[in-house]
Every structure is written in C-alpha cells, then in structure tokens.
Amino acid sequence: MKDGVQILVHPGLEAAAFAAIPDVAPDAKFPLRSGSNMRRYPKRRSEKAVSFISYGRSMRVETLDGLRRLLVLISQVPVTA
Q: What is the C-alpha separation between 8 and 65, in angstroms, rounded?
C-alpha cells in the first residue's frame, strides 16, 4: 500500500455498506486478514487447517475524512453473526 492506512473491521459488517464512502475501499489483494490478537472477532480455520484463528475484513482508507466517515458508519451499523 502506497498511501493511507489499513483498518480491519468485523466481517459481519457488509462490504456494500462501505461502497458509498469516498476514499475507503475493500483491500482487493487481502480482503480478509487474520490475527491472534483479534479476540472479539469471529474465528475461521487457518490456511494450514491446523487451528482456528480470528479474522476481519480489510479496508483501505486513503484520507482522514474517509477514516472519519468509516468510523461513523461502523458506530451506526449493527454487526451480523
């Protein structure tokens, strides 16, 4: 990623909800990211199928205004599953 930041959001938040936010887009290369420190996120089987690991939806944010809009949206949208 050249500019901006990557934010991991709960995978229960629908990606379509983010489509209308300028300067925010799903990470095309890595749409889902895993991490053992994501304790409140759901789990899925790891790539090696050895264990289950928490994961989230990866979003690219290019501007501070995009980040602000994303955070407002996340605070208003209920999480499914």
A: 17
Q: SS3 of 68, please?
A: helix
27 to 5, 14, 48, 50, 51: CA distances (angstroms): 11, 14, 22, 26, 25
pLDDT digits (tens, 9 = 90+) for 63-73: 999 999 999 98
H helix runs in 1-81, sequence order: 64-76
- Percent of the chain exceeding pLDDT 70 equals 90
State the average pLDDT over residues 10-26. Answer: 82
> 75 phi and psi, to 5 degrees?
-70, -15
Q: Please report, for residues 15, 50, 60, the alpha-carbon distance to residue 44 in angstroms, rounded to integers and kept in the order given.
A: 18, 11, 22
What's the DSSP call for residue 19?
T
